[in-house]
Amino acid sequence: MLSRHQIEIVQSTLPLLESAGTAITEHFYGRMFRENPELKDIFNLSHQHSGQQPVALFNAILAYARYLDNPAVLAQAIERIAHKHTGFQIRPEQYDIVGHHLLETIRELAPDAATPEVLDAWGQAYGQLAAIFIGREEEIYASAEQAAGGWRGKRRFRLVAKTAESELVTSFVWSPVDGGPVMDFKPGQYLSLSVSHPSLAHHEYRQYSLSDAPNGNTYRISVKRESGTPAGQISNYLHDHVDVGDELDLLPPAGDFFLDVDADTPVVLLSGGVGLTPLLSMLNQLSRSGHRAPVHYLHACENGRQHAFRDQVASLARDQEHIHSFVWYREPLAEDRIDQDYDATGLIDLAPLRDSILRDDTQFYFCGPLAFMRAVYRQLKDWDVDDARLHYELFGPHQTLTGE
Ligand SMILES: Cc1cc2nc3c(=O)[nH]c(=O)nc-3n(C[C@H](O)[C@H](O)[C@H](O)COP(=O)(O)OP(=O)(O)OC[C@H]3O[C@@H](n4cnc5c(N)ncnc54)[C@H](O)[C@@H]3O)c2cc1C
Ligand code: HEM
Fold first, then answer.
1. What are 353-398's pLDDT values in tens digits?
2. Active-site hit among 137, 165, 204, 393
3. CA pair distance 206, 226, nearest whole angstrom
4. CATH number of the domain to which 201 belongs
5. Is residue 402 in a domain?
6. Whose CA is nearest to atom 34 of ligand 2?
7. Which residues, 6+ apart, have CB-to-CB distance to 84 below 8 Å?
8. Three-class SS of residue 161?
9. pTM for the complete prediction?
10. Which residue, judged by its Cα, is nearest atom 40 of ligand 2?
11. What is the model's pLDDT at position 283?
C-alpha cells in the first residue's frame, strides 16, 4: 500500500512525464524490445508503427498515477485491458519485465527527477497496478478454464468452413480438433488466434470478434482482408493460405464489449464496414432469444460489393417484426442503384431515424472505423444519450471517441 507521501511523489512527477509525451513510451518500447526481444512474439508490431499502442499504454499509466487515491474510477479501463491482455496470454512474470523497463525509462529520460525516493514510489505504484491486473487476468483465465467446453491457454482447432461474405470479408468456422464442445461466449466478445508460420517474422496474436451467436460446437469469425501497404499479415494469411482442414491455435473468448439487455430493452446496433461482426453476433442472439423490444440494426459500408451478410440481415428483418434494418452506402455502384439494397447514400446520419430509434431506455452498441465511431458518438451525445447506454469496441488499441 502506498503512503500519502509516496502518492504525492508519484503525482508530482506527472507534469514532467506529460511534457515528455509519447517520447517516453517510445523510449520504453525501444529498450524493452532490445533487451527482451522475445516480447516481439507477443506485441503486434504494426500497432507500434502506427503509434496507437504507445499512446494507449502511456495514457493508462498516467491515468492510473492521477487516480492513485481513487483507482475505482479506472475500473472500466482495467477490465477492458485485462481482457485484452488475456488475448495475448500475458503472464504474471512479464509484469516484472515491463516494470523494470518503465523505471529504467524514467531514470534515463529524467535523470535529475529520478531520485531513489521517486523511483521507489513509482516502483510501488506500478507494483500495485500490476497486482490488480494479475489478479483480474487470473480470474478470467480460470473462469474460461472452468466453463463447460472451456480451456486455458491454446487449444487446437480445425477450419470446417470458409465462406466469402463480400469482396473483402471471409468467414472462417472453427471446430476443436479434440472433438469436444466449446464454451459459450457473450455476443460481442472476441477470440484470439495464435499464429506461427515461416512467412511471418514473429509469432502473432490477433483478435477477431465472434460473428455468430454461440452454438456450443463451433466458432465463426469473419475477417476483412487488409490490403494496405504493407499488406496486413494475418488477415491476408487467413484469406490466402488457410483452407478447410487446416489447424490453428485459439485462445478462449474474452472481451468486455457484449450484449447485456433484458427482453424488453430496445436495442440499436450500429456498424461500419467489417465492424459488423460483433453486432451480427448480437443480432443473431436477439433474433433467437425471444427478445420482445425493437431491435434496429444500422449498417454503413462502401457499396453493395462490400456489404457482407446483406441477405442474412435482410431476411431477419423481413421475418421478425421486432427487427429493423437500415443501410447506408457511401458510394453506391451503378449495379446497386438497380437492386436498391440500401436505404441512404453517404455517411451515417441518424437524424432521420431519431423518432424510431430513440427511447429513454435504448441501449446503443457500435463498432467500426474510428471516424465512423466518432461520428456515431457525436450524434448520440447531441441527443444527450447518457454514456452508460453507449457501448463500443474498436478493432485496435483503445482510443477516445471525443476527438475529431
Ligand atoms: C477486439 C478486436 C476485435 C476484432 N475483430 C475483428 C473482426 O471481427 N474482423 C476483422 O477483420 N478484424 C477484426 N479485428 C482486427 C484484427 O485483429 C486485425 O488487427 C486485422 O485483421 C489486421 O491484422 P493483420 O495482421 O492483417 O494486419 P497487421 O499486419 O497487423 O497490419 C495492420 C495495419 O498496419 C499497417 N502496418 C503494418 N506494418 C506497418 C509499418 N511498418 N508501417 C506502417 N504501417 C504498417 C498495415 O498496412 C495494416 O494496415 C479486431 C481487433 C480487435 C482488437
Ligand atoms: C501495469 C502494467 C500495464 C499497463 C498499464 C498496460 C496497459 C495496456 C493498455 C492500455 C493496452 C491497450 C488496451 C486496449 O487496446 O484496449 C494494453 C495492451 C497490451 N498490453 Fe499491456 N499493460 C500493462 C502490462 C503489460 C504486460 C506486462 C505485457 C506483456 C509483456 C503487456 C502486453 C500488452 C499487449 C501485447 C497488448 C496488446 C497490444 C496491441 O494491441 O498491439 N502489457 N496494455
1. 999 999 999 999 999 999 999 999 999 999 999 999 999 999 987 7
2. 137
3. 13
4. 2.40.30.10
5. no
6. 43
7. 207, 254, 255, 398
8. strand
9. 0.96
10. 397
11. 98
Q: What pairs with residue 155 in β-bridges? A: 250
User: What count of residues does the chain have?
Assistant: 404
Q: Is residue 399 part of a domain?
A: no
Identify the pLDDT of residue 6. Answer: 94
Which residues is 345 bridged to in the sheet? 329
Q: Which residues line ligand 2 (CB under 6 A)?
A: 39, 42-44, 47, 53, 56-57, 60-61, 80-81, 84-85, 88, 90, 94-95, 97-98, 129-130, 133, 397-398
How many distinct structural domains can be found in the chain?
A: 3
194, 318: one domain? no
How does pLDDT run across 290-322, given as a tens digit for each residue? 899 999 999 999 999 999 999 999 999 999 999
Q: Which domain holds residue 329?
A: 267-393
Give residue 56 CA to ligand 2 midpoint distance, Å: 8
Q: Tens digits of per-residue pLDDT, 218-230? A: 999 999 999 988 8
- 98 CA from centroid of ligand 1 (Å): 24
Least distant ligand from the CA of 234: 1
**Ligand 2 centroid from CA 154, angstroms:** 19
The C-alpha cell that represents 221 in the structure block: 469469425
